[in-house]
Structures are given as C-alpha cells and as structure tokens.
Amino acid sequence: MSPIPAAPSMGQLATQPTKPLLRTLAGLPSARPPLWLMRQAGRYLPEYRQTRAQAGSFLDLCYNPELAAEVTLQPIRRFGFDAAILFADILLIPQALGQQLAFRENEGPVLDAIRTAGELTRLNPDGIHKTLGPVYEAVGRIKAELPANCTLIGFAGAPWTVATYMLEGRGSKDFPAAKTWAFGNPVGLDTLMDILVEATIAYLDRQVQAGAEVVQLFDTWAGVLPEQEFRRFCIEPVRRIIAALKEKYPALPVIAFPRGAGILYETYAQATGADALGLDYTMPLGWTRDHLWSKTVVQGNLDPRLLVVGGSALAEGVHRLLSTFKGRGHIFNLGHGIVPETPVRHVEELVRLVKGSEVSA
Ligand code: CP3
Predict the structure, then answer these.
(1) How do residues 146-199 score in pLDDT, each as one tens digit?
(2) For 168, phi and psi rounded to 5 degrees?
(3) What pLDDT score does 95 carry?
(4) CA dist., res. 21 & res. 331, Å (int)
(5) Does residue 8 lie in a domain region?
(6) What is the pLDDT of residue 7?
(7) Which atom of ligand 1 is nearest the CA belonging to 38?
(8) CA distances from 118 to 70, 121, 159, 193 (A)
(9) What is the CATH number of the domain that holds 94?
(10) By residue range, what is the domain housing residue 139?
(11) Is 81 in the pocket of ligand 1 (CB under 6 A)?
(12) On the chain, which terminus has fewer CB atoms closer than 10 Å, C or N?
C-alpha cells in the first residue's frame, strides 16, 4: 500500500468544511484543537456586566436580540475563540411552555414547580415560538456578524436537566421532587419528557434555520440518576431529539454534555448518536482516551477552577489535555462553565497556550 494517501475527489473537496470546529467534528485532523469555553459570555467579562446592566435583568438580556447578539460576540472579539455559543438559557423552554420563571440575584432560577402529573396540562407546547422568537432573531444577527472561521453553536437543555428545574422549582443538590417522579411516577415523567422532547426539537430546528451550525445539549444533572433511570430519562429523550434533527439535517453535528455520567458516557455515546461528547472535569483522561476518543470526538474538560487559579497549575492542566488528545477528535473546552471570579488574563493565557500548541505540534 502506498504511504501517500489518495488525493480527495472533487466531491470530497466540495463537502469538506473549512471552519476549525466543523473540521474536527467531521473527524479531520488539525494542528491544534479548536477552542471555545462553556459560559464564555458571562459575568467574568466587564463588557458583559455592562451590557447586562443596560438590558435590565438576565431574562431581558436573553429576549433582546440585539444585546443577546452583542454578548455572544464579546468573547469572540476579545479572545478569538473558534466558536460562538448563542446567548440564552436552558430555562427559556419551560418559560415558553407557560411556567413562571425568574432569576433572583444570588439565588439563581425560581419557577412555579409542577407538583402533580395533572398539572402538566398547564404546559402549552403549541405556543413556544411566540416567546422564543427573539432568540431566533438573535441567532440571525450573530450569524451575520460572525468572523469567517468561527462556528455558531445553538443549544438547549436536555429534557432530564430541564425537568429537574421544572419539578423542583429551583436549583437542587439532591433532587427530591424529580427523583420522586422518576421512581414513583415514571409514566408521568415520561409524559413530561415527551413534551420536552417535542419542544426541544422544534426549538433547535428553528435555531438551525436561523443559522446555528452545530447544536449542543446540556445535561448538567445526568449524573444523579441510577443506570435504569439514566437510560430512560437521559439517554432515550436525547436519542429521540438527535434522531429527529438528523432526519431533517443529516449533516448537523450534535454535541451532548451528560455531566457526571461516569463510565455510562460510553453507552450514552453509542445509544444517543451524538457526534461529540462534552466531558465533565472528573472524567479520567486515560479511560476517556481508550473508551471514548478512540470512537468519537470529545470536548473538554479542563476544571474551571484551574482557570481561576492560573499559573503553572493551569499550564500543566492544558498541557495534559493537549498531549492526551493529539492531532484529531478533540475540541478544547472546560469540564463545566466558566465561573464569574475567573480573571480575564487567565483566559488570555489559556488561549495563548492552546493556540501556541500549533507551533510546537
Ligand atoms: O455558554 C454560554 O456562554 C451561553 C449561554 C448559557 C447560559 N446558560 C447563560 C447564563 C448557557 C449555554 C447556559 C446553560 C445553562 N443554564 C445550564 C447548563 C449548563 C451548566 O452551566 O450547567 C444550566 C443548568 C442553566 C440554568 C441556569 N442559568 C442557572 C442555574 C443559572 C444561575 C447560576 C448562575 O451562574 O448565575 C443561570 C444563569 C445564567 N445563565 C447566567 C448566564 C451568563 C448568569 C446570569 C447573570 O448574568 O447573572
């Protein structure tokens, strides 16, 4: 066999993406991994704090297409990331379905919790686009201003994680209400999952129509369920969402982030059909390399605290990731979102380290 690979045909050339993130998602090699950070638009940036103050509240910002586009693009201008992620929130879906939602200072989200299966009739899946229209408009505005090599990521929460907020009425550590549904009324929870699956498909479809090139599903609380419930309420809804999106957009890359799934990441990857897996920061690199990276694209997983600490600890963490996943199949990111106290200069240092790795590769 010739050591020189065959030249790609014209057909292949025509379909190969040029943007770094899309190339990595397509399995193509690269001299350094594409880079973006979860929660890259946020309170650690002075320009974000200023725009948010201008908007009024966090939700006012989410529903203001001009200002949502502005905060999406701020980290792109400052750091030159390879992807922009739409500025919105996973809890806009429950709000669009008719639930009351407020973000209180230092308290996080508060919703009027759904307590019984009978109350699911409060949710109205038909009206969501009326509420979410400004989000689609923001997507269009971002796309129009995006630098040529930067990819636009749309997103939604995965049904289980969104359901935890809908059922608890707030953030939780042990999920008493959501777990009571999962174990005590799984059929009722299936009904909520059906509503969320359909709403999420419709929401992401509109984001793609408006210009999103990749979508990510955030399953922040995937790691709190036992295996059987994990399969039913995390894997199955996400599988259905991905299948529906792929039926309509066969080339659309989907990234899924089942935070805390541990060794079930492997089953999750196979069963959901996601193109790439967002790794949380607890995932051991050796296991990940052997069980996931060998078969699929991975994204992550620097501990966001390292970005607060900086210095040699940050440099070592970055180096370990770069040397574990070399040459292909890795999107550089954090293992969860940036925290507000992150110094901007540490993000600059991270960008230098990752982009500089190209030279020494
Ligand atoms: O990544 C990005 O830059 C895009 C925007 C984005 C936000 N939230 C903006 C936001 C994305 C992708 C999310 C996802 C999200 N929202 C998740 C999943 C990812 C994760 O972090 O686990 C979850 C669980 C939520 C729900 C949510 N939104 C909570 C619990 C909170 C309060 C906690 C906090 O950090 O304040 C939010 C608020 C929120 N969402 C902020 C931002 C920038 C902070 C709001 C502010 O400006 O005060």
Answers:
(1) 999 999 999 999 999 999 999 999 999 999 999 999 999 999 999 999 999 999
(2) -80, -30
(3) 98
(4) 7
(5) no
(6) 52
(7) 1
(8) 41, 6, 19, 15
(9) 3.20.20.210
(10) 13-360
(11) no
(12) N
- Is the minimum distance from the CB of 39 to ligand 1 under 6 angstroms? yes
Burial group, residue 4, by CB count within 10 angstroms (0-12, 13-18, 19+): exposed
Residue 306: inside a domain: yes
∠ CA 129-235-232, rounded to 5°: 100
Q: How far is CA 48 from CA 42, 64, 178, 198, in A?
A: 6, 14, 33, 32
Total structural domains in the chain? 1
For the Cβ of 155 lying below 6 angstroms from any atom of ligand 1, the answer is yes
Measured CA to CA, the distance from residue 265 to residue 206 in angstroms comes to 28
68 CA to middle of ligand 1, Å? 13
* Contact (Cβ atoms closer than 8 angstroms) between residue 53 and residue 99: no
Q: Whose CA is nearest to atom 40 of ligand 1?
A: 89
Query: Which of 39, 85, 164, 341 best tests ligand 1's pocket when mutated (most atoms within 8 Å of CB)?
Result: 39
**CA 75/CA 65 separation, integer angstroms:** 17
At residue 74's C-alpha, the angle toward residues 144 and 310, to 5°, is 140
Pocket residue to mutate for ligand 1, from 60, 74, 90, most atoms within 8 A of Cβ = 90
Q: How far apart are CA 326 and CA 30, in angstroms?
A: 9
User: Does residue 5 lie in a domain region?
Assistant: no
Sequential DSSP letters for 66-107: HHHHHHHHHHHHHH--SEEE----TTHHHHHTT--EEEETTT
Catalytic residues: 39, 43, 52, 89, 165
Within a domain: 259: yes
pLDDT per position as a tens digit, 11-51: 555 579 999 999 999 999 999 999 999 999 999 999 999 99
Question: Left if phi > 0, otherwise alpha if psi is -120 to 50, otherwise beta: which for 155?
Answer: beta
